[in-house]
Amino acid sequence: MKIIETGFDGLYELEPNVFGDKRGYFFESFKKSLFVELGITEDFVQDNESFSVKGTLRGLHYQQNPHAQAKLVRVVSGKVLDVAVDLRKDSPTFGKHHTVILDAEKHNMFLVPAGFGHGFVALEDSVFTYKCSNYYNKESEGGVLWSDPVLNIDWGIENPIVSEKDQVLPTFDAYKQNPVF
Ligand SMILES: Cc1cn([C@H]2C[C@H](O)[C@@H](COP(=O)(O)OP(=O)(O)O[C@H]3O[C@@H](C)C(=O)[C@@H](O)[C@H]3O)O2)c(=O)[nH]c1=O
Fold first, then answer.
1. Across all residues in the chain, what is the average pLDDT?
2. Which residues are part of the catalytic machinery?
3. Quick one: DSSP state of residue 139?
4. Who lines ligand 1 at CB under 6 A?
5. ipTM of predicted complex
6. By C-alpha distance, which of 86, 85, 79 is closest to 108?
7. CA proximity to 110, closest of 20, 29, 26
8. What are the helix and strand counts (H, E) for the chain?
9. Within 10 A of 15 (CB to CB), how many other CB atoms are there?
10. pLDDT, tens only, 55-109
């Protein structure tokens, strides 16, 4: 497993070792002992999967403490642009974001720690899967508006398909008035 630094504390891209042969491929998508060796000690307790048609955008989401979640995300088919925004008010990268293309053919993953807003746009029809270090808790859900110009995220798309809930998330300036991380 190759771990790629992003310049953000706790945020990593991961590239597993993939064994290809005439049948197809094999790789270890999660192995606790290996992650611990890499310094990733999250206790993942829930796995999620979603399917998004090309042009769908989900995010930017988080759960507040004590239900905050680290997420280990990847796509099993298709390709997405994945985005993590640092929402930790005392972080040197507060308000900044990092993007990575998650590609089913590359099998790469993104480890997004608690304290980040997370979202993605499907560049193709995509099946997205992720492990979470805390259970879903509806009352703890929060988010920041994906299109907020203050965040300056280049999603590479003009009119994405967005849920009603995600169209009315607070701006980053509003989040800054009452940060939760
Ligand atoms: C996230 C989640 C949703 N749900 C339900 C609530 C709702 O009825 C339905 C769809 O939920 P949402 O619209 O919030 O799904 P979605 O927009 O895909 O939410 C996800 O977005 C990405 C970007 C993330 O980072 C995830 O943590 C999660 O917030 O699924 C669960 O039952 N468990 C869960 O863990």
1. 97
2. 61, 130
3. G
4. 48, 50, 58-59, 61, 71, 118-120, 136, 163
5. 0.98
6. 79
7. 29
8. 3, 13
9. 14
10. 999 999 999 999 999 999 999 999 999 999 999 999 999 999 999 999 999 999 9
Cα distance between the two ends of the chain: 30
Is the pTM for the entire model greater than 0.95?
A: yes
Domain boundaries, the chain: 2-177
Positive/negative CA dihedral, 14, 20, 25, 31:
negative
Could you identify the atom of ligand 1 that is nearest to the CA of residue 112? Answer: 25
Beta strands in 12-160 (DSSP E): 12-15, 19-21, 24-26, 46-52, 57-63, 71-77, 79-86, 97-103, 109-112, 116-122, 126-132, 141-143
Backbone CA torsion sign across 154, 11, 14, 80: negative
Q: From the CA of 177, how far away is ligand 1's center (Å)? A: 25
CATH number for domain 2-177, candidates 2.60.120.10, 1.20.120.80, 3.30.70.360, 3.40.390.10: 2.60.120.10
For the record, the structure tokens of 57 come out as 């955008």
61-71 pLDDT, tens digit per residue, is 999 999 999 99
Centre of ligand 1 from the C-alpha of residue 20, in Å: 33
